[in-house]
Amino acid sequence: MTELDLGQLRNEINEIDTKLVELFRRRMDIALDIAKYKKEHGLPVFNAAREQEVLEKVSEEIGEPYDSYVRVLFNTIMDVSKSYQNSYLTEKSALAERIQTALEQTPKIFPRKATVACQGVPGANSQSACEKLFDFPKISYYNSFAGVFNAVEQGLCEYGILPIENSSHGSVGAVYDLMQNYNFYIVKSIRLHVNHNLMAKRGTKLSDIREIFSHEQAIGQCGEFLKSLEGVKVTVCENTAMAAKMVAESDRTDIAAISARACVDLYGLDLLKSNIQTTDNNYTRFICISKKMEIYPGANKTSLILSLPHIPRALYHTMAKFAALGINLTKLESRPIPGSDFEFLFYFDLEASVYADELLLLLSELENRPETFVFLGAYTEAI
């Protein structure tokens, strides 16, 4: 094929594309007229039978080998059509009004002082995250993640700090599972560079160690180092700093903890080996939660919980709503619904600003669906 032939083919495609654009415009105009009719007669936007009829018709008309491709094309067309219809039909919900109120009433500057709940004991990484977010925090420590959620929900602390995911070892599943059980809002997040260190009682040598304690996330992040130790048992505990404290208070001289460097001096331990994490590019993301919805200036991340109907392409259709509005999905986490058979809740992190009417309309649409929908918050992430 010559360069001239390729140019001619591209010109033909350009002409076809121009016709497609005009036909697409006409189709969307008619879709809007249909939306007006549906609104007048109280009909839903989604009609599963009609969509299936369209897909079967176009698939039969085009035949092989294009039938599967045309189904993808028309699925996309119908998704953006429904999104366009919903933008006309959907009225701002109670959630949208509460978001608007929060935007107006939240102070312009994130607080410097606050009472904050953290999991663990002094020296925990959650303490470091807390001290980066607040200049003068009054920290209360709780044994479990559930304790942090409960302290915020009961008003014992204004804010709570919780780890949500690690760059090398993934999500903190226990925190995601607890999100279903408490009322809270994310008001800020922060990415904390985390170094892990092996520490033991004074005078203990690395060769003396027979058992190491730490949180499961830290253990996972130090997997390569731990594999290099022969005959050493690894035991999970609630928190890295709690592991260091336990080692310091124990009568045993053959145990060690994986914890933050600050715990060496804090608990009077010896540093056996520093920076034992598998990668130096090791970050943990923490969220700051509040009982009250607070949306500080510049909020550009939004987090949601959704359940979806147990039908084919349910997740695809939901993600298509985000795509149609140009919303970037930065995280998707699924967790099983307790007591259900293979049904899941989905956690979405979106790069989206609540200052945009398009997002508020989308949130209103999702809130009006029969499935579970929870707005977790709109916030910025500190680094």
What percent strand? Answer: 15-25%
Q: What structural class do the secondary elements suggest?
A: alpha/beta
Q: State the share of residues found in helices, binned by percent.
A: 40-55%
Q: Report how far apart the termini are.
A: 53 Å
Return the string of H and E elements: HHHHEHEHEEHEEEHHEHEHEEEHEEHEE
Helical segment count: 13
Give the C-alpha Rg: 27 Å
Q: For the report, how would you describe the main beta sheet?
A: 7 strands, mixed
Total domain modules: 3
Weakly predicted, low-confidence segments? none
Spatial shape: elongated
CATH superfamily of the largest domain: ACT domain
CATH architecture of the largest domain: 2-Layer Sandwich
What this model shows, in words?
Strands 1, 2, 3, 4, 5, 11 and 16 form a seven-stranded mixed beta sheet that branches. Strands 8-7-9-6-10 form a five-stranded mixed beta sheet. α1 crosses α3 (67-89). The chain has 13 helices and 16 strands. It has three domains: 3-89, Up-down Bundle (Chorismate Mutase Domain, subunit A); 91-106 and 295-383, ACT domain (Alpha-Beta Plaits); 197-273, D-Maltodextrin-Binding Protein, domain 2, CATH 3.40.190. The two termini are 53 Å apart. It has 383 residues and is α/β, with parallel strands linked by helices. The protein has helices at 3-41, 48-62, 67-89, 94-105, 125-133, 145-153, 173-179, 216-221, 223-227, 240-249, 262-266, 314-324, 357-367, and strands at residues 113-119, 136-142, 159-166, 170-171, 185-193, 197-200, 211-214, 233-236, 255-259, 270-273, 283-290, 301-307, 328-336, 344-351, 373-379, 381-382.
